[in-house]
Amino acid sequence: QKDFGPMKKAEQRTIETGLLHAADAQPLISDDIISEEPAPDVKGNAWNMIVPITIMVLMMPVSLLYTGWDPARFAPEANLGSKIITALGNGSGSTSVLWAVLTSLFVAAIMYRTQKIFTVDEMVALAFKGIGSLMPLAVLMMLAFAIGKMSKDLGTGLYLADLSKQWLHAGLVPFVLFLTASFIAFSTGTSWGTFAIMLAIAVPMAQQFEHTLPLAVAAVLSGGVFGDHCSPISDTTIISSMASACDHIDHVKTQLPYALTAGAFSALLFLLAGFTA
Question: Which of 115, 148, 217, 249 is 20 to 30 Å apart from 141, CA to CA?
Answer without folding.
Answer: 217
